[in-house]
Amino acid sequence: MSIMRRIVSVVAKRKAREIEHVLNHPVEVTEDLLTSILNRNQDTVLGRDYDFESIASPEEYAERVPLTDYNKMRPILEEVYRNPTGKIMTAEPVIWYLRTSGSTGKPKDMPITPSGLKTASVGGARMWMGFMNQHPDNTKILDGSMIMFGAPAVFGDINGVPLGYGSGLYVRKANKVFARLISPGPDVFRIQDMEEKMRAYAMCCATRDVTALQGIATLSLAFVRRMENQYGPWLLEQLKGTKHEKRLRRAMDSDGKVDVAELWPNLRLFASGGIDVEPYREWIAKILPQVTVWEGYASSEAYMASQILPEPGIQLMPDLNYFEFIPEAEIDCEEPTVIPLSDVKKGSRYEMLLTNSNGWYRYRVGDMVTISNIDPYTVRHISRKGNVVSLAGEKLSDVHVIDAMAKACLVTGAHLMDYSVVGVIDGPIPHYTIAGMFRGDVDSVDFVNAFEDALGEANWEFLNSRAMGGLGPTTLAKMRTSQHEELVKATHLQAKPVPLTTDMSVLAVCEAA
Question: How does pLDDT run across 25-34, given as a tens digit for each residue?
Answer without folding.
Answer: 999 999 999 9
